[in-house]
C-alpha cells in the first residue's frame, strides 16, 4: 500500500510539472528537444581524444535506461490522469534519436555560418559539395519553370484525390503518413474536407503534411514537376512525394526525420522559413542557421542529421512544398 501511494505521488508530481511547463509558455516540443540535446551534448571540456569513448558509454546508458524510465513515467501519468499526455512521450522519434550514431561535425556543419544560395548548380558541384555531405544548400533557380508553381493549391489537391481511381476521400491516407501538427485533423481525408472558410485561412490556423502512396496521384503530380536539374541522371528520386501545406504561423516543430536518404524540398507557393539546428554533439563547432525559401527555390539537406523546424511567412498565399528523397 505504501509503495502504491509513492507511485501515485510520483505520477501526480510529474503531471503537475507538465502543466507548469505548459502554463509557462514552454511547448512540449521544446521540452522534448532539450531532453534530446542532453542525450548527445558534448561537454565543452571534452577532448577529442575522449569523444569516442564518451559517446560509446553515453549511448549505452541513455539507450538502455532512459526509454524504460520514459515509458514508466508515461504510464504512471496516464493512469493518474487518462486525459493527460506524457511530458516526454517514449515514441520512436525519441528512441531513434537516442540511438543515433554521432554525426561527423566537420563534414556536416563546421564553418557553415549561413545556408548558401546558388544558381546554375552543376551536377558535378552538387555531387562533390552538397549531395552526400549533409551540408544544406538552396538552389534558387531549380523549380521556377515548373508548372506546379502557381498550379498547386488546396483545391488542386482536393480535386486530385477525389478523382483518383485508387483513392477517395475516405482512404487517401491509407498506407501513407499524415502529419496533423496542431491542425486538429485526424487524417488527410479529414483535412481535405475542411470548410472553404478554413481552407482560405479565415478560420482556425492549420498546417499539414503527408506522403503520397497512390501511384495514380503520383503519375499526375509528376506531370507538374521534373527531377531537379542538378541531380545526376543516374540518381533516382524516391517513389513517394512529400507534400506540406499551410498558412502563416508555426509549421513543423523541432524534429529530426527517419527517412532512408537525403532529400530535397521545393517551395511552390508562399514562403517558408527553415531553422536548422546542428546535432547536439556538434554544438561546440557548429551554429544554428536560418533561411527563408522563396517561390521556385529548392532546399537540399539531410533531415536525418539536422534538427529542423519551419515557420510560414505571411504573404497572402498558402505555403505549398513538394519533395522527395534521392540516392
Strand order of the largest sheet: 1-2-10-7-12-5-4-3
Terminal CA distance? 58 Å
Give the low-pLDDT segments: 46-57, 59-64, 168-173
Structural class: alpha+beta
Radius of gyration: 22 Å
The number of helical runs is: 11
Let me know the largest β-sheet. 8 strands, mixed
What portion of the residues fall into strands of 2 or more residues?
15-25%
Shape: globular
- Fraction in helix: 25-40%
N-to-C SSE series? HHHHHEHEHHEHHEHEEEEEEEE
The overall pLDDT, averaged over residues, is 79
Beta strands, count: 12
Folded structure, characterized:
Residues 125-289 form the Cupin-like domain. With 327 residues, this protein is α+β, with helices and mostly antiparallel strands. It has helices at residues 2-23, 28-40, 48-80, 92-98, 105-108, 123-131, 148-151, 154-163, 188-192, 196-199, 215-221; strands at 116-118, 137-139, 178-179, 207-212, 241-246, 249-250, 263-269, 271-277, 289-293, 298-301, 307-313, 319-325. The strands form 2 sheets. An 8-stranded mixed sheet has the order 1-2-10-7-12-5-4-3. The longest helix has 33 residues, at 48-80. The chain starts with a helix and ends with a strand.
Amino acid at each position: 500500500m505504501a509503495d502504491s501511494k509513492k507511485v501515485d505521488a510520483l505520477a501526480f508530481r510529474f503531471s503537475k510539472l507538465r502543466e507548469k511547463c505548459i502554463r509557462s509558455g514552454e511547448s512540449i516540443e521544446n521540452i522534448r528537444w532539450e531532453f534530446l540535446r542532453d542525450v548527445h551534448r558534448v561537454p565543452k571540456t571534452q577532448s577529442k581524444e575522449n569523444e569516442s569513448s564518451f559517446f560509446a558509454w553515453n549511448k549505452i546508458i541513455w539507450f538502455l535506461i532512459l526509454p524504460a524510465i520514459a515509458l514508466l513515467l508515461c504510464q504512471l501519468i496516464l493512469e493518474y490522469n487518462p486525459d493527460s499526455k506524457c511530458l516526454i512521450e517514449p515514441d520512436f522519434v525519441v528512441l531513434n534519436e537516442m540511438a543515433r550514431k554521432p554525426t561527423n561535425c566537420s563534414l556536416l556543419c563546421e564553418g557553415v555560418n549561413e545556408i548558401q544560395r546558388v544558381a546554375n548548380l552543376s551536377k558535378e558541384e552538387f555531387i562533390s559539395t552538397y549531395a552526400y555531405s549533409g551540408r544544406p544548400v538552396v538552389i534558387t533557380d531549380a523549380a521556377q519553370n515548373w508548372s506546379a508553381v502557381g498550379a498547386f493549391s488546396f483545391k488542386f489537391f482536393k480535386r486530385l484525390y477525389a478523382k483518383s481511381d485508387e483513392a477517395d476521400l475516405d482512404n487517401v491516407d491509407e498506407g501513407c503518413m499524415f502529419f496533423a501538427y496542431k491542425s486538429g485533423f485526424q487524417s488527410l481525408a479529414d483535412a481535405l474536407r475542411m470548410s472553404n472558410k478554413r481552407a482560405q485561412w479565415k478560420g482556425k490556423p492549420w498546417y499539414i503534411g503527408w506522403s503520397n502512396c497512390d501511384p495514380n496521384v503520383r503519375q499526375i503530380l509528376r506531370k507538374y514537376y521534373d527531377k531537379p536539374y542538378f541531380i545526376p541522371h543516374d540518381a533516382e528520386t524516391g517513389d513517394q512525394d512529400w507534400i506540406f501545406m499551410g498558412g502563416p504561423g508555426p509549421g513543423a516543430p523541432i524534429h529530426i526525420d527517419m527517412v532512408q536518404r537525403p532529400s530535397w524540398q521545393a517551395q511552390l507557393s508562399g514562403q517558408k522559413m527553415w531553422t536548422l539546428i546542428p546535432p547536439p554533439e556538434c554544438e561546440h563547432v557548429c551554429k544554428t542557421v536560418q533561411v527563408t525559401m522563396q517561390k521556385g527555390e529548392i532546399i537540399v539537406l539531410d533531415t536525418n542529421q539536422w534538427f529542423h523546424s519551419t515557420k510560414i511567412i505571411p504573404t497572402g498565399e498558402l505555403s505549398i512544398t513538394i519533395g522527395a528523397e534521392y540516392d
